[in-house]
Known about the structure:
With 295 residues, the protein is α/β, with parallel strands linked by helices. It is built from ten helices and nine strands.
Amino acid sequence: xxLKATNLSSQPKIVTTVDALRQALRQPRRALGRIGLVPxxxxxxEGHLSLVRAAGDECDVTVVSIYVNPSQFAPTEDLARxxxxxxxxxxxxxxxxxxxxxxxDDAEVYRPGHATWVAVGGVADAWEGRLRPNxxxxxxxxxxxxxxxxxPDVAFFGQKDFQQLQxxxxxxxxxxxxxxxxxCATVRExxxxxxxxxxxxxxxxxxxxxxxxxxxxxxAEELVAGGERDASEIVRQIHEVVQAxxxxxxxYIALVHPETLEPIAEVAGCTAVxxxxxxxGTRLIDNTLLTPPSA
Length: 295
């Protein structure tokens, strides 16, 4: 396909406007090339790059968007200090075969007078949606806009942001968006911490303490494998393990249905564990899926 890089060490082409993006994709689309999109906010790590590789394996052209979306940040959140390092991101993307980077500015994404927002109900209401009002409105709006701008066949998202993945899936289903949404496994640091751009905020001590999150999820998996089915008992033991990272603020620990995200009382089938905590002021989320051996 015309944009597919033959030298994986070369940086991908970068475009900053919707017109340039569509122009770059016109010939591959006419040739019926399969276009993959990896939406990101930059500050790329191995988790992002695994999505790019997954897109490259499946698609003829891989587009990576790099855009720190202001509409998904509350006024008290970290928009101003969110890490931005475009040159390093471009270098990393060249090493994993990305073909095209779309890096618009705010004016390109939100035209003057922008007043249309996407409000997803159901899966967006609880957990992150409750604690971060308008967060998923901003996520759903920018994702739909990126889908309209790039018109991909497939979009790749990490399962680390489990609720976000379900929100995007519901939006696509409800609005009949012709994009296949692919969820890819969470990539972890050697100590088990789920990779996140916000991990850069953690001090070495906080990073060590934060491994309690993944350890608590392993504990939940062990409990279910050993026959425990009571959700409240599993939550209690997760809480106990997370407290090993003290001082820590726990926003929530929940066992939920993996599609509706509604709380469950008993692990009778595939169940998602969702947790969100703050360590030294940095908010970290993680999750895992529990499947009883008999399910």
